[in-house]
């Protein structure tokens, strides 16, 4: 079992391998994390782990809130996550490699990272300025019939895109050809579908690529059928969901 200890960045969203993650860092605990990562030479990866929040708040309250207006806001690495950070997070996340960490004049940071490897959360350490975690790297098993499933998912995904574009009353934009490597397909489609966080999390932690593709095929067919039965809606209605402040 290969384990690694990395800074931990909880979000209200799921990061998949190969996907780009832009972040606007303003909380002090994560600013401290970025300052620490900047100590790593540019020739080496500046890595941290992203996990989806199961129970808690991405951004800690910064002012007294309801019902007690005199209560002091939470501070420290576990603010917003309760007394048990392990229980507040989903158990499978993704390592992010920060290609760009730029500090602004006001001390906040602009970060551009890319998901690389799935990891399982083993323990969380809250003794420092920011959370760190002991993580187990998860193998990328192919599973049975991954190639054929990837072809089916791509066909279903194109239909899903067409239906979605029609519901938005927009034309489908033409872009580069979609990849056909099963692992890449599984993560690209998982990230592109309009699903809630628990559904995306289930796709991230699928036991192998083929299982993820099978689940995506079912979801794509179900979602396409739902969109087909809907009247035309403004795009904002179809994409409405929680917005990450980071």
TrEMBL record:
Domain Lon N-terminal per the UniProt entry, residue ranges: 6-224
Name the UniProt record assigns to this protein: ATP-dependent protease
SUPFAM superfamilies for this protein: PUA domain-like (SSF88697)
PROSITE patterns: LON_N
BP terms from Gene Ontology: proteolysis
Pfam families in alphabetical order: LON_substr_bdg
Superkingdom field: Bacteria
UniProt KW keywords: Hydrolase, Protease
Source organism of this protein record: Streptomyces acidicola
